[in-house]
Amino acid sequence: MRFVMVPGGWQGGWVFDAVAAELRRDGHHVEAVTLAGLEPDGPADRDRPPNLDTHVDQVAEIVDRGDGTPVALCGHSYAGMVIAGVADRLGDRLGQLVFIDAYVPDDGDSCWSLTSDEFRELFIAGSRADGRWVAVPEGLDPRARPHPLPSFVQSIRLGGDPGRALGRTFISGGAWPGSPFVTLTERLRDDADWRVHEIPVGHNIARRDPRSLAAVLGALPAGPG
Predict the structure, then answer these.
(1) Residues whose CB falls within 8 Å of the CB of residue 74, separated by 6 or more in sequence, listed in order
(2) N or C: which end of the chain has fewer CB within 10 A?
(3) What is the DSSP string of 157-219?
């Protein structure tokens, strides 16, 4: 199976290193994306931070240049917004859509509108320096970089259903303090169109329990369903 993995806020493709190693060991192809503006050497233009559209375009291009093999498109946290936008555009190229403790938007939603007051306050406080970039919160990996504020606040535009045959999976990190995903998880458990798994290690599942996350991903069907 081909996996395209998109990290959440402040983090780069490196966050999936251990997960990717497990999946590759089992014969899967994995591409972990570092979103525009989050490059290790810093953004190309600090005065023009990328928005959500930029990130959707970037990941859609990666998916589109594949060999036609159905893709399991995985997004953590903020990247739920990104993969939803890609699925709306390229649903026929995808086999599975996987939200890893991530936002699951409807048309008009944003990361800002879907998150908790705690995270909205973090976004505001973190962007006070220049109004463009949200500073890295305490406790993240030293490789984390300031995140472009426009991508957190831009509303997504979804044209409709990207295909009911597309397999949808939500992987919860459990009810960690301040999680904006608890109610969402319970709602999706009651939705026959979704598979829901729980790896109760907190929000950063890929770093805290990469083996369990790889096991869930590796067991997904190769195609839709």
Answers:
(1) 3, 4, 5, 6, 83, 98, 100, 217
(2) C
(3) ---S---TTSEEEEEE--S-TT-S-HHHHHHHHT-TTEEEEE--S-S-HHHH-HHHHHHHHHT
Show Cβ contacts of residue 169 under 8 Å, excluding neighbours closer than 6 positions: 96, 97, 98, 99, 194, 195, 196, 197, 216, 220
Place of tokens 């590796």: 218
Contact between 12 and 207 under an 8 Å Cβ cutoff? The reply is no
Q: What is the DSSP code (8-state) at residue 147?
A: E
Q: Where are the domains of the chain?
A: 2-218
pLDDT in tens, the chain (225 residues): 999 999 999 999 999 999 999 999 999 999 999 999 999 998 888 999 999 999 999 999 999 998 888 899 999 999 999 999 999 999 888 999 999 999 999 999 999 999 999 999 999 999 999 999 999 999 999 999 999 999 999 999 998 665 556 899 999 999 999 999 999 999 999 999 999 999 999 999 999 999 999 999 999 987 665
How many Å is the Cα radius of gyration of the chain?
Answer: 16
Three-state DSSP state, 79: helix
CA–CA separation, 225 and 28 (whole Å)? 19
- How many Å apart are CA 80 and CA 75, to the nearest integer? 5
